[in-house]
Amino acid sequence: MVIIFFFLLGIVIGSFLNVCITRIPEEISIVSPGSHCPRCKTPIKPYDNVPVFAWLWLGGKCRACGQPISPMYPIIEMSTGLLFVGALLDFGVTQATVKWLFFTCLVIVLTVTDLRVRLLPDVITWPGFAAGLLFSAVVPPNDGFARFLGYRLFQARLPGYAAGILDGLLGAAFGSFLLFGLAKAYKAARGREGMGMGDVKMMAMVGAFLGLRGTFLTILVGSLLGSLVGLAVVLALYAGGWKSGLAKRASTRGLGTENGLRWAIASQYQLPLGTFLGIGGLLIVYATPVVAARWAIFRGIIG
Questions:
Q1: Based on C-alpha coordinates, what's the Rg of the chain?
Q2: Domain count of the chain?
Q3: Is the bond leading into 46 cis (omega within 30 degrees of zero)?
C-alpha cells in the first residue's frame, strides 16, 4: 500500500511538473489559468485530467479539438511516479526520501526544459540551490570532506548541520566553477560558446544537494552519457542524410566534398548538456545505493 501511495503521489506531482515545464519558459503563471488544451485552449475537465490514464483513454488527443497531445505528459508523470517508488525502496520513509524527492522534482523540470527549449530557468536553479543547502543541513551528503576540513583547520569537530551545509557549499563550488572554467576554455579554444551559464547554475544547485563526491560523479556520468548519445545522434544524422541538400549545393560551389560537408554539418548538432547532467544526477542518487549494496568494491568510491 505504501508503494502504491508513493506511485500515485508521484504521478500527481508529475502532472504539476508538466505545468512547470511548459509554462515557466514562457513566463506564464503555474497557478492560473487552469489546465487547458495547448492547441485550442479549451479547459480540461477534471475527469480528463487524471495523470497518465486520461491520456490513454483519450487516445492522446484533445476531447474538444481532436488534435494530438504530446506523449511528453504521460511519460513525465509515469517517470515521476516510478522515481518516487525508487526513492521509497532506496531510502525508506525517512528524511532522506523527502530530500531526494524534492531534488528529483527540480531535476526533472530542468532536464526536460533544457531538452525542449535549451533553457535552465533561474527561477528553478537559485531556489533549488538554497533548498539544497537547507536539506543538506538536515540530511548531510555522504562525503565527510567538511568534517575533515573542520578538524584540519580548526582542530574541532563541526556540528552535523554545519558539516552538511559546508559539504553542500563545497559541492556547489566544485560543480559550478569546474563548468565555468570548462566553458571559458572551450570558448577560448573554439571561438564560440560551448555551454551556457545555466549549466553552471544548475551544477551549483546539484552540488548543494549532493556534495563534492556526488557532484564529481554527476559531471563524470553526465558528460560520458552526453558524449555517447551525442556521437550516436551525429552518426544517425549523417547516415540519414540530414541537410544533404545543403551539403550538395555547397559542394557544387567548391566548398568541399559532399560527404565531408555532410559530416561537418552533422557534427555541429549540439545536445543540451543540462539534460545529461540531470540524468547523471538522478543516476547518482538512485543507482549508487543499489550498486554499493551489491558490489562492495564500489562502496569507497560512490558512498
A1: 22
A2: 1
A3: no
